[in-house]
Every structure is written in C-alpha cells, then in structure tokens.
Amino acid sequence: MSLGASNTEYVSARVRARRAALFADEDYRKLVRMGPSGIARFMEESEYEREINELGARFSGVDLIEYALNQNLAKHFGDLLEWSEGRLYDLVARYLRKFDVWNVKTIIRGIYTETPTEEIQTDLIRAGELDDATLDRLLEVDAIEDVVEILDGTVYHDPLEAAYEQFEETGTLVPLENALDREFYEHLLDDLGRPQEGPEAKYVEFLQAEIDFRNARNALRLARSGADLDPASYYIEGGVLFDQKELNRLVTDLDELVDHIAENKRYGKRLSSALGQLREADSLIQFEHALDAALLEYADTLSSIYPVSVSSVLSYILAKEREIENIRAIARGREVGLSESEIEEELVIL
C-alpha cells in the first residue's frame, strides 16, 4: 500500500519538535540525586508542567509523578493519532495498540498478586484502542477469568481464552502474557507484505526487529523462570533472527545468543555498541535494558535513513517511552531507598 494520502512531512516536523524536548541523559543523572518532591519540581519546570499542576492538588510524591507521566504519555500519543492522516494513521495506530496489551497485562498481574486497584490504575497508560469505560470495568473485577470475559468482542479475547487452561495448569502468567504479545506482534505485519525499499520497508524492518528482540527476551525469561515450559511454544512469528529450533537451542546460552545477533547481517554492524552492553549484562534486567537500548538505537538508525517517514514517528514513540520509564524507575527507586548506583542500573541510557 502507498503512503500517498498521508501527511508525513507535517507529522515528522511535529515529532522532531517533541523529540527535542525530551530529557537528556544528563537530566536523568540529576534526577537520581533527588527525592520524589525534587523530581516533581524538576518536572514542573519541563514540558510536564501542565500535568504536575493539574494533578498536584490530588496527589503527591511518587503517585503524583506516576499519574503525571502516564497522563503526559497518553496526551502525546493521542496527539500523534490526531495529527496523522491516511496510511500514516493506520501504521501509527496499529503500533500504539501495544498500550492495550500493557494495560491488560498490568490488570492481570494486579489481580494475580492481589494488588490494590488504586495501585493498578496508577500503572495504566490510556493510549491504546481500549476505551476508558472498558479499562474501568476491568479494574472492577478480581478474577482473571472475568477479565477474559469482559474482553469478549475484542481481538484479545480468543487468545486469552485459549491460554487460560495452561495458566491454570502452570500457575504462571507467562501463557496469558505471551498470548497478548503474540496477538499484538503477529498482527502488526498484517497486509504490509514485504516491501524491498522505501519508508514502508523500513517500518516493516523495525517491526521485525522488535519481534526478534521480544523473542530473545521471552526465551531468556522462560529459561530463567525454572518453569517446565517449551521456549519454542512461545515463539512469535514475523521476525528474521530466529526460527523456533534456533531459539530452543540458544535459550540456554546467553553468549551464544548475543553472538547469533552480532553475526546477523541486519543487526550486527548497526548494533555494535548495544551488543557490547548485552555481553556485559550480568543479570536478566540488565540484558532486557540493553535490548531496549538496542531497539531504540535501531529505530534511530532507520529514521535517519528516512527522516520524513513513519520510522521517525516510531523512533520518537520509543524515545518517549524510554523517558517515561526512566523517570518512573528513578522515582520508585528513591521511594524504596535504592542507592544512586542501584537506580542507574534500572535506567535505559544510550
């Protein structure tokens, strides 16, 4: 399909302006030395001013920061959809469905761990296609089976229903979470074909990279979970880096997994610095952060090839997510008394 009816130049210009306002790595290093009230004041002097002021009468401390971050993220990504037209709108909208998956996972995890509804709600990012009424209904139930029922009529119902029996058998959320991921990722590439050149080819290339890195992440989580689960059964179709057999073999050897990525013609040269971080990672969390950094670096590379394209929009989406997650990690870390070095280990910094 063509991007003919899109307003890509306009949206790319708006995105460049928004990206210029994102926090720099030096800002995160300043925030690490602050408590929650200091972080909120710092945010008030940035483009989070509106959210901090609007929410400041009702919330304080980390709660204020959390709500401000999520409200700001929803606003920015809502703006992207409002600005976009034609084919560009379709490509951006299908990618932003990732927040539906985030929200459903967050609610399921909250029910599983018996987390208070208020705390679950704090973590929701209302930037997907599920409307507020549906999310509010999901927040009211206290059984995962009820979540599946409420989602009847959405694309998430059937995959969750199919995975529910395995969830009951294993007692782990992995089958449910993986069902949501597969639904999202495997439909990202619907009707896109395999364009060989041009902006849409880079869009497809980025989606394939995200699927590849999700497969690597899932495989390592499964391997370290200790559960008796077959990694290949959680394989997501659509990537280019692994087939099911390769993933099964590589899941037990981190060094070999990184070598496999490095030797791939598509990723190796472009991800040299990120691959160095992957090799140095001595925990699953650090490895996952390095994968996030690698994907962001990859998106930036693709957007530099076609700066006026959907790739530049995706690159901004990832960069904005990184900002939100870094600020959240700092605020939560300070709240629970982590040291500055411990908090820095939680950050994705390029």
UniProtKB/TrEMBL annotation:
Q: Does Membrane count among this protein's keywords?
A: yes
Primary localization class, coarse? membrane
Q: Which domain of life is it from?
A: Archaea
Give GO terms: molecular function aspect only. Answer: ATP binding; proton-transporting ATP synthase activity, rotational mechanism; proton-transporting ATPase activity, rotational mechanism
How does the protein's chain sit in the membrane according to the entry? Peripheral membrane protein
Sorted alphabetically, which keywords does the UniProt record give? ATP synthesis, Cell membrane, Hydrogen ion transport, Ion transport, Membrane, Transport
GO cellular component terms? Answer: plasma membrane; proton-transporting V-type ATPase, V0 domain
Which PANTHER family does the entry link to? V-TYPE ATP SYNTHASE SUBUNIT C
Q: What is this protein's function? A: Component of the A-type ATP synthase that produces ATP from ADP in the presence of a proton gradient across the membrane.
Under what name is this protein listed?
A-type ATP synthase subunit C
Organism equals: Natrarchaeobaculum sulfurireducens
